[in-house]
């Protein structure tokens, strides 16, 4: 059995030794091992992939016993067990398409039991890929109610994380608090940044030479949560706002897909306001 | 004789035809030709490099006559005539070093008759390259006076443009207004941007995955003038603020050198708040 | 009417002037204009986009008359007239998917009247996008015959160019000669290059840190025709051959889509063994 | 005391545990830890940086005892002890300049006790940085003799590794064998690759859109040894061979500097024909 153990705790001597001892004690052989200490917050994080014939329960027992004194946040799961994602979309399809394409190709180790949208445009696209689609229109009045429906679906379908694949609604802090560190969003990014509406038009007016996208976690109390992944592309003066938007779509779908894959493989740790990503 | 003509005016039919006619009329053969219309501001810009045996005066006459009706900003110069740069530095050498290195290699078609600094650290480095160095310390009290010294040097040495190669003083709006579109600065850039002190530490705390640099024109009335060139590099969680600063230096020197080269070859046009760059 | 004129001829003085005069003479206003002289072969190429209310025939007449003395290869077409592509595939879908996705998004100004494959795997994918699919299995015995079927389809459907979107058959020199400069292929590229089977495994064994893809024209007499577009991605030691293949797919689909878009907008000129691309 | 331990051996269960136990046994606290198993060759490599107040000898004793049964190649050194590089150059200065610049900046943890060249052009540049310069002209007749001088200098100056910073002589297999895995070279790279003289001109004729550089180890029995680091830049049709060469220089100096830094920090392991690089 191939397992991934993720561990996060205050840094102190002996953790790596305790982890490797615990893995050995449940008959495990380490395949991958990555660790990092964030000195700002004195936080230690570790991701260990190992094989053992003794199974998940034995691994849980051995690691809990061996690492207990460090009071870690410890998570163990079979590598073969795919995290289940709820994907939220509005009407733009580019990010969703890439997720479904990579899923079909077997390159994205997740399951998508449901796509929810506040609009109906993408219904047939989603269903043509064999994924259920739920239309959940949102107004100022029904927002709280609709988020309850979402949370109910999350519970019912045993959803592990939420992907905002160009979902153009702001989630309430209640919803965010219910899924801490489990909501991934994608948005455009520029050098320098722009506030307000029509950012690509602002970027165009300002003559930026680079446009980009950022995948990040959504948090209730932050304007923008911890960054997971970023990428950029070069543009020049001849790009119209529309061409910049098209290029932006290409970057967004790539960056979001990478972030989802990293999440699905338990490679992301949130430490303070930033992420440690074992790519 | 190899000449570069730069033209900027309101867009209207017939400009390209008029330019090519004027070039033909002074015996010219076009080697390079680039043009662009900025539809937001209805501005037409054109850069034409051509050879003629009739010389600079004949070219001036022919182009002024042929293009006069468009009331263009028209600039013609021999390609072999190198623009003269005043370089301002403080104590960081990385950008200056790359400029001097490329100069010695013959890859940067400029002359640097003088380097001015508000500190003394780089004096021997500059002089070891055979370039005069002027120490001009700046305080709140003497700033206006020192800028006058600079402007006098600019006049005396027939300086064409100013390069701020990590010059850590803010130039007055008077100084900026005296050299409109002729002062190039370099600074760090991030996704997202950060205000205030110690930007690399802020970027580190925020866990950015990309850092960059922007070369731009300095303007009196803008927080940050038209962008000339930008580039980025990827970082991950393991980079300390110091390593990010080191990487930032590498990007800064590269981006500034490229911007100076583009300027020196008359490839940059300022149109509204942005630049058209014929790379 | 918005027109694109593409011109290629031996370089000599006066061509730009003649073109702009000819455009003026048919009431045209130049929107975009790009030109380049390849000094190795003394070849001049020019792409001019202009608007005229006098229509295509008037433009043809004016440009043919005005430019005739240069014996150019001259091509004029309405911008709105989309080139028609025959796409050939085998069983890998990634390149085809991106073409169809961009087509649906309105970002790729082509039409795809037919997809032909030597295998049946992609039939339902193609047809689900409303594009006819022709299964044309190829053996050593029937190859010449099947290529005749293809050429018949090309004639019947007024195909302008052929896109090999991971078509795993080698086209005969007869076929290539029938579509000179009109067949675009995509393949993987490495630093350094590798010959023979299983290139990603070879690249893995050699520990390359960069993998890439090249879109190029197919020619009968060259091992590999003129390069249109290339891109790369960084990998490290931890990438398995399978992960490198997956990353390679991402680069391939991006590079091929860009090459097809450049071709569809008449931005590519073949000059000797290389291309001039007005991006 | 801050130490770096590098370990390479056949993969088998328990190595990580043994290493962490051995570190604990000499009072060590792990700061950085990276490991990788190359499944093709069944090779395990590990780099562990740790602090201990017990000193280098205690660390050697503990790690040798604890890891002995794995028959590893084990190397321990104080982080503060800088590897000593012999830099070989010919007449091009770009790579050497960047190494000296980073050295002066304190960003490259190496010492350069000597630069040797088969030409005299760079003598004053090297000496102006306070580094001894040895002129060692090479002919077919004296090559073996001159390499003996080099090897004597390597012994005398306790040189740890050799950097070929655009050294245009081929080292004999005798010389290479005397410094296995300790000679770093830089050369240009293209997609596709080119054999023979004037590669940039070949790349230009072929119209490549990407040029690059590769830093690699030099080995006696391989055409080109294990790749350490690679990077690329985009070019278009307008780049002359000379401009491509200039751009190539920029990539070369960057890639070589990175490779030397990785080497100086014990981050590179040679496994078969490839490298594992803990960046």
Automatic annotation (TrEMBL), chains A, B, C, D:
Domain ACT: residue ranges: 4-77
GO molecular function terms listed in the Swiss-Prot or TrEMBL record: formyltetrahydrofolate deformylase activity
Protein name: Formyltetrahydrofolate deformylase
InterPro entries (alphabetical): ACT-like_dom_sf (IPR045865), ACT_dom (IPR002912), Formyl-FH4-Hydrolase_C (IPR041729), Formyl_transf_N (IPR002376), Formyl_transf_N_sf (IPR036477), PurU (IPR004810), PurU_ACT (IPR044074)
Catalytic center residues: 223
Originating species: Candidatus Planktophila sulfonica
Catalytic activities: (6R)-10-formyltetrahydrofolate + H2O = (6S)-5,6,7,8-tetrahydrofolate + formate + H(+)
Protein biosynthesis as UniProt keyword: no
Biological process, per Gene Ontology: 'de novo' IMP biosynthetic process; one-carbon metabolic process
